[in-house]
Q: What sequence folds into this?
């Protein structure tokens, strides 16, 4: 009996040591190649599962939204009119801006070199906000690159293997992005929060910010290029007697339903 | 044959967890089907469930964002605790007992993940945020536990029947 118990402890000890070694190996990226191989193998199985799931949820969400379709349609038509007029004035400003840049000897404003990628997996936990995409080193992806969807910031690449990469979403609780209010250039740091929302922190007290203001990356720290849209201010948390203030930021993407993303691999 | 079937069950559950389940997000949270399966399997199969729970830790470590070792340790610990708790507190497997176990271990797992995030740089407020979201997940997981309980019990009785028939055939 005594022998059996000590054998059991030996097994448990060996198991714990094995798990610890695996944890260290994974932490130091030694397992990236076998992980990437398994992910590549599962891709043919994954796609039908994902499309089946999307069909089911789309079916239910369609019936859930029938009542509000007419109202939504009116709102969208109004948005299209507003955007068209903004686009027209934006075109004028762009022309004017490029002429002025030429006159003062600045280089033309950069456009991003993008590599499109498909989202394979989302992290199973509600607390960690990662997605795995099907582009890696072979496609020119490297760690730290910004990832967009429809021109809006999604996050940054944190792990790269041959054919896939892991993207830390902007909404992850360990993510911190230097940002600013587009109109007023008020700076702050965007922090992810559980539940796919964002908090703009470290905003200097006394700066005027209001709901609806657009938040873009500030380019500080050089991880994210300047001027990428992230979201809009939802509410301002007034903190009297504090040197800094905070604001809740509404994301313009549904981070739980990302399908196609674009990796910024350079600036044209 | 039996082991291959169990392999497929865990493999496809892990795959569904990272692809299909996030589509069913309510109030910012989705259920953790794999965690429910780990707890259910441990209730029904006792210590024999441990290798499979560790395997599910490996799978979720590969498909998800957290470290493989961390996931294996978390699932292994949950499995061991489930075996111990279900052996000492619930004399017979029942729906309510399993739902309670799943709810408790959902909270445990979330705090475990929150702790790892806190160590890797998240602010202390993460523990407060976990509470709200964890409650939504607890409800989802407890509901799923009922269905999983039913399916795992069916699987157990079917495989027991198969083994019995095999024994009888070999004796005769």
A:
């Amino acid at each position: 009996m005594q022998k059996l118990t000590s054998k059991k402890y030996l097994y448990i000890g060996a198991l714990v040591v094995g798990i610890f070694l695996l944890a260290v190996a994974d932490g130091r990226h030694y397992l990236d190649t076998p992980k990437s191989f398994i992910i590549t193998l599962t891709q043919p199985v994954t796609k039908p599962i994902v499309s089946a799931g999307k069909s089911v949820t789309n079916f239910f969400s369609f019936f859930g939204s029938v009542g509000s379709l007419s109202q939504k349609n009116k709102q969208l038509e109004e948005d299209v009119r507003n955007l068209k007029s903004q686009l027209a004035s934006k075109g004028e400003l762009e022309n004017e801006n490029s002429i002025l840049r030429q006159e003062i000897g600045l280089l033309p404003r950069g456009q991003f070199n993008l590599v499109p990628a498909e989202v394979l997996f989302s992290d199973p936990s509600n607390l960690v906000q990662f997605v795995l995409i099907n582009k890696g080193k072979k496609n020119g992806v490297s760690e730290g690159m910004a990832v967009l969807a429809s021109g809006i910031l999604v996050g940054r690449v944190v792990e790269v293997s041959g054919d896939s990469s892991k993207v830390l979403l902007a909404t992850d609780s360990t993510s911190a992005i230097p940002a600013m209010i587009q109109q007023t250039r008020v700076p702050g740091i965007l922090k992810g929060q559980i539940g796919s929302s964002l908090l703009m922190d470290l905003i200097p007290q006394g700066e005027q910010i209001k709901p609806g203001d657009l938040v873009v990356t500030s380019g500080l720290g050089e991880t994210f290029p300047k001027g990428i849209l992230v979201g809009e201010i939802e509410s301002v948390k007034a903190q009297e007697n504090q040197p800094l203030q905070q604001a809740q930021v509404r994301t313009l993407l549904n981070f739980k339903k990302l399908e196609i993303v674009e990796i910024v691999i350079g600036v044209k | 044959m039996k082991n291959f079937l169990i392999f497929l069950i865990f493999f496809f559950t892990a795959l569904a967890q990272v692809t299909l389940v996030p589509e069913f997000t309510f109030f910012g949270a989705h259920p953790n089907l794999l965690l429910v399966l780990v707890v259910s399997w441990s209730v029904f199969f006792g210590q024999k469930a441990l290798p499979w729970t560790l395997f599910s830790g490996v799978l979720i470590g590969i498909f998800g964002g957290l470290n493989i070792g961390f996931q294996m340790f978390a699932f292994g610990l949950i499995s061991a605790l489930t075996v111990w708790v279900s052996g000492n507190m619930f004399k017979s497997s029942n729906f309510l007992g399993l739902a309670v176990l799943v709810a408790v271990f959902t909270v445990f797992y979330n705090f475990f993940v929150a702790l790892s995030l806190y160590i890797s740089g998240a602010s202390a407020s993460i523990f407060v945020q976990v509470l709200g979201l964890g409650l939504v997940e607890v409800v989802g997981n407890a509901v799923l536990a009922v269905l999983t309980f039913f399916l795992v019990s069916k699987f157990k009785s079917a495989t027991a029947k198969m083994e019995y028939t095999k024994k009888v055939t070999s004796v005769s």
